[in-house]
Amino acid sequence: MEGESAMTVLKLARRLVLVAGFAAAMTQPATAQDTGVSIMTGSPTGTYIQFGRDMQTLMAQCGQQVEVVESAGSLENFLGVRQRPNTQFGIVQSDVLEYMQTFASEDPAVARAITGVRIAFPLYDEEVHILGSRDIASFNDLAGKRVAIGVENSGTFLTASLMLSLAGIEPAEKLQISPAEGLQQLKAGQLDAFFYVAGAPASLFADGDIDGERFHLLPINNDTLRTVYTPGEIPAGTYDFQTQPVGLVAVKAVLMTYEYEMRRNAYHRASCDAVSDLSGLILTKLEDLRETGHPKWKSVDLSAIPPGWDIGACVNRGIDPGYEINCTAPVPAVSDSESDANAAYRRSICAVMGC
């Protein structure tokens, strides 16, 4: 990548880091008693939050609590793992990782931003959805149009900005609004198209009451973009309004974590334990997740590690065959009328047989 496109990426990366305030020291609780566990995901209509809830359920089955945090998306999640207390996980797009890594050697702020951030697991390919008016034939026709590119600090914002820059396409207006707001404005005739990077099926499109006579998913057949990104396809019928297959491009969703040090302090020990436990559960319960979780679990490839990044030490600790996951049956709910003796009995049988 050269010239203006490279400068665009560098400016985006620098601005994102500076806005997030990486100059401030990372604050962390001092004791394990203060430690909570959370995973930063995305908007309520996205795939990230559904994956987060699947992982939350997995940990709950072992009596462990995980908070699923809504966010703007990939960029905020990356920064959250790096500096937000009690945030052991965040889901991030692979192009965010690629460009942060690429420009770390050129900008000290970017280099500081990625220090200590590690891979937990590569997840699934998420498609670049562009919903537009029927009079826009494809991605290449976005020039001169009113286009929503996502809110700043979201992965959609970075991906949309990069794709438009790499393809040399200049919309008449680029609106920094969420995909949900983009859908509303598209329906109202206030814009021509909007970007949304999400694993199909995304609930925004599945539940969005979209008129297939007026709107369609734009095919992305730009040669440059299909070289930089992974070519993909959304099969016909994935969404009610979409009767034909759509060729487009995709990025990899990746679960990120931090390189916690067991010997550093109680917070690091507790956080490392949480990372190890969830990692072990994902590996050993992957088939269950594919059966009961979001459909994208079926396409998770745990071997597809993004280049230039290392797996976290606490992750490797958790997937080691000799690691014992901290897994106890959740305490069953007890009705107000139940006696202490019956409640004790119920806890005991649940501990042995499950509830």
TrEMBL record:
Keyword ATP-binding: no
Keywords: Signal
UniProt-listed InterPro entries: TRAP_TAXI
Residues annotated as signal peptide: 1-32
Pfam families referenced in this protein's UniProt entry, alphabetically: NMT1_3
Name recorded for this polypeptide: TRAP transporter solute receptor, TAXI family
Lineage of origin: Bacteria, Pseudomonadati, Pseudomonadota, Alphaproteobacteria, Rhodobacterales
